[in-house]
Amino acid sequence: MKTYKIALIKGDGIGPEIIDEAVKVLDAVASCCDIEFSYEEALMGGCAYDITGDPLPQETINISLNSDAVLFGAIGGQKWDNLPREKRPESGLLRFRKELGVYANLRPAVVYDELVNASSLKPEIVKGVDLMVVRELIGGIYFGEPKGRDENRGWNTMVYTREEIVRIAHQAFKIAMTRSKRVCSVDKANVLDVSQLWRDVVTEVAEEYPEVELSHMYVDNAAMQLIRDPKQFDVMLTGNIFGDILSDEASMLSGSIGLLPSASVGAKIGVYEPIHGSAPDIAGQGIANPIATISSASMMLRYALGENDAADKIDAAIKRALKEGYRTKDLAQFDAKEVCSTSEMGSIIANYAAK
Ligand code: NAD
Ligand code: IPM
Ligand code: MN
């Protein structure tokens, strides 16, 4: 029997609630796939700051680097919003991604047939949507220097190097080769020099993938096209901030941000995390949708551990729970036969996944 070491970072807000459900589901598939998980918890975000004075203690990095993969919940909340920037939970997360070197954030947006009515768009627009946002994660305006503010000015710098663009472009083209072989690179090359470099380098890298059809789109148009006709997209390749925004937008194709998982990869250890945040408005109420996190655990099995059977079981269990009409509160108005709590949804999926 194989044992995998998983670092668990629950974080703040709904983080602990959703991670607990993902662990429940992982343990359920472990028992029938002849694998085993040993978990080690590590602190990050506001909870880490409250205990240690640092949103990203060194021990969290050590535990993560010493694991096979990291399963991450969410961080942040109003309580920490007025701390100096480097003490904020969000800064801990950015530093974490940078330290691990996970430069590629894969954010699939899939519309489950059972939930076509849950989207804010018409069913015929969203039915069958299956796209993948490939978001550069450790560069761009989030990290560029100079940055800062004084009383009257604030400034950030959007910078990408050729090397950073080359490696994320390769990720996108490789993923496209396993899908419909279409990449749409999203930028703002009509205005930004950094985007013109992005476009030129992506075009160069594309020459190594002659089977893949590359198109380019300005980010403002992409935001519009995503809700006009989302099925035109297969892989959307984009930088850090555009990818952040477009993936939240894409979540509404599927009906709830509580459904969208992600994998942050490109380094030795990957981080598997829902795309949503700590949802302070619903934390502690037992109503958060755990599916984004459970689905992130499935991506972890597939991408980090090569346990595809176990991942398939989880994916099938999520579909079955939705098909049978189980809904958390975020999706309660849409063909729900039974509205369930976070932990009930976790148990239902765990139960199906174990079969
Ligand atoms: P959010 O994603 O936390 O919440 C946005 C809205 O979506 C809220 O109404 C929330 O209740 C809802 N929502 C989110 N996840 C849900 C789920 N699983 N089930 C049901 N509903 C869900 O974004 P926000 O409100 O802008 O940010 C809250 C905090 O989270 C901030 O401190 C922010 O910096 C942080 N944040 C963290 C991450 C992360 O840890 N990766 C990501 C985004 C935001
Ligand atoms: C995300 C979040 C983070 C980001 C924040 C909390 C730093 O919005 O994971 O999407 O912008 O990357
Ligand atoms: Mn985000």
UniProtKB/TrEMBL annotation:
<dbReference type="GO" id="GO:0005829">
    <property type="term" value="C:cytosol"/>
</dbReference>
<feature type="site" description="Important for catalysis">
    <location>
        <position position="188"/>
    </location>
</feature>
<feature type="binding site">
    <location>
        <begin position="277"/>
        <end position="289"/>
    </location>
    <ligand>
        <name>NAD(+)</name>
    </ligand>
</feature>
<keyword id="KW-0560">Oxidoreductase</keyword>
<dbReference type="InterPro" id="IPR004429">
    <property type="entry name" value="Isopropylmalate_DH"/>
</dbReference>
<comment type="subunit">
    <text>Homodimer.</text>
</comment>
<feature type="binding site">
    <location>
        <position position="220"/>
    </location>
    <ligand>
        <name>substrate</name>
    </ligand>
</feature>
<dbReference type="InterPro" id="IPR024084">
    <property type="entry name" value="IsoPropMal-DH-like_dom"/>
</dbReference>
<feature type="binding site">
    <location>
        <position position="107"/>
    </location>
    <ligand>
        <name>substrate</name>
    </ligand>
</feature>
<comment type="similarity">
    <text>Belongs to the isocitrate and isopropylmalate dehydrogenases family. LeuB type 1 subfamily.</text>
</comment>
<keyword id="KW-0464">Manganese</keyword>
<comment type="pathway">
    <text>Amino-acid biosynthesis; L-leucine biosynthesis; L-leucine from 3-methyl-2-oxobutanoate: step 3/4.</text>
</comment>
<dbReference type="GO" id="GO:0003862">
    <property type="term" value="F:3-isopropylmalate dehydrogenase activity"/>
</dbReference>
<keyword id="KW-0963">Cytoplasm</keyword>
<feature type="binding site">
    <location>
        <position position="220"/>
    </location>
    <ligand>
        <name>Mg(2+)</name>
    </ligand>
</feature>
<keyword id="KW-0432">Leucine biosynthesis</keyword>
<feature type="binding site">
    <location>
        <position position="97"/>
    </location>
    <ligand>
        <name>substrate</name>
    </ligand>
</feature>
<keyword id="KW-0479">Metal-binding</keyword>
<dbReference type="GO" id="GO:0051287">
    <property type="term" value="F:NAD binding"/>
</dbReference>
<dbReference type="Pfam" id="PF00180">
    <property type="entry name" value="Iso_dh"/>
</dbReference>
<feature type="binding site">
    <location>
        <position position="244"/>
    </location>
    <ligand>
        <name>Mg(2+)</name>
    </ligand>
</feature>
<feature type="binding site">
    <location>
        <position position="135"/>
    </location>
    <ligand>
        <name>substrate</name>
    </ligand>
</feature>
<comment type="function">
    <text>Catalyzes the oxidation of 3-carboxy-2-hydroxy-4-methylpentanoate (3-isopropylmalate) to 3-carboxy-4-methyl-2-oxopentanoate. The product decarboxylates to 4-methyl-2 oxopentanoate.</text>
</comment>
<keyword id="KW-0460">Magnesium</keyword>
<dbReference type="GO" id="GO:0000287">
    <property type="term" value="F:magnesium ion binding"/>
</dbReference>
<keyword id="KW-0100">Branched-chain amino acid biosynthesis</keyword>
<keyword id="KW-0028">Amino-acid biosynthesis</keyword>
<feature type="domain" description="Isopropylmalate dehydrogenase-like">
    <location>
        <begin position="5"/>
        <end position="349"/>
    </location>
</feature>
<feature type="binding site">
    <location>
        <position position="248"/>
    </location>
    <ligand>
        <name>Mg(2+)</name>
    </ligand>
</feature>
<dbReference type="GO" id="GO:0009098">
    <property type="term" value="P:L-leucine biosynthetic process"/>
</dbReference>
<keyword id="KW-0520">NAD</keyword>
<feature type="site" description="Important for catalysis">
    <location>
        <position position="142"/>
    </location>
</feature>
<protein>
    <recommendedName>
        <fullName>3-isopropylmalate dehydrogenase</fullName>
        <ecNumber>1.1.1.85</ecNumber>
    </recommendedName>
</protein>
<dbReference type="InterPro" id="IPR019818">
    <property type="entry name" value="IsoCit/isopropylmalate_DH_CS"/>
</dbReference>
